[in-house]
Structure formats: C-alpha cells, structure tokens
Write a structure and sequence with these properties.
- The structure is a single chain.
- 0% of the residues lie in helices and 49% in strands.
- β4 and β5 form a beta hairpin.
- The strands form 2 sheets. Strands 2, 4, 5, 6, 9, 10 and 11 form a 7-stranded mixed sheet that branches. Strands 1-3-8-7 form a 4-stranded antiparallel sheet, with no helix packed on it.
C-alpha cells in the first residue's frame, strides 16, 4: 500500500514553468513504477509521463515531450514532474499514480493538483 499526495500546482502564464511533487507514504515507494496523468474539463484522463521504480525508461506523451521531465528521488519517497514552456492546453488536474512493475494497472492515486495556464 502507498498513499500519494500531489503538490505544486497553481496558476502560471503561458511559457512559464511549474514543478509538481508527489509525496508517497510507506517504505515501499522504490518498488513502484510512477506515472503522471492529467484530466481537463470535459476530456478523458491522459497519461502524461511515467518512470520505472529505479528511475529508468522515462516515457512521455507526444503532447509534452521535450517540455516536461519526470523524475524521482527514492530516498525522499517523492516523484516529480517538471513542466516547462507551459501552454494553455496544459491546463488540467494533474494526478500521480503508482503501480507494481508487474502490473499494467495503476492501483494507487493521489487526489490531484490543479494546474492552470493563462494565455
């Protein structure tokens, strides 16, 4: 079991940056792959980025590739999403999630943090 709490969202102008954090409880954070997702009003939830339990093989959706960077610090039980060159279309609630490396399903989710990009 792991509990996740996101922070770092807010209002930013287009072209600006934000860094989201996802703090995890428990001593098994380093056994979970981590992902970041987002959901804009009226749209389906979208996978944004993911990273393996060891910090390898980062994946990015085409919509954020080259602008966002996912990372993790297993010593601090925290995952991050650095978001640069933000666009109005990045406006959404951002969620972090955890899954076992053996599973395709993210079983643990945070409550979400709002990111609003003004144009």
């Amino acid at each position: 079991q792991v509990q996740l709490v996101e922070s770092g969202g807010g209002l930013v102008q287009a072209g600006g940056s934000l860094r989201l954090s996802c703090a995890a409880s428990g001593r098994t954070f380093n056994t979970y792959d981590m992902g970041w997702f987002r959901q804009a009003p009226g749209k389906d939830r979208e996978s944004v980025a993911r990273i393996t339990f060891s910090g390898g093989r980062p994946y990015y959706s085409d919509s954020v590739k080259g602008r966002f960077t996912i990372s993790r610090d297993n010593a601090k039980n925290t995952a991050y999403l650095q978001m640069n060159s933000l666009k109005a279309e990045d406006t959404a609630v951002y969620y972090c999630a955890a899954r076992s490396p053996a599973s395709a399903v993210y079983n643990f989710w945070g409550q979400g943090t709002q990111v609003t990009v003004s144009s």
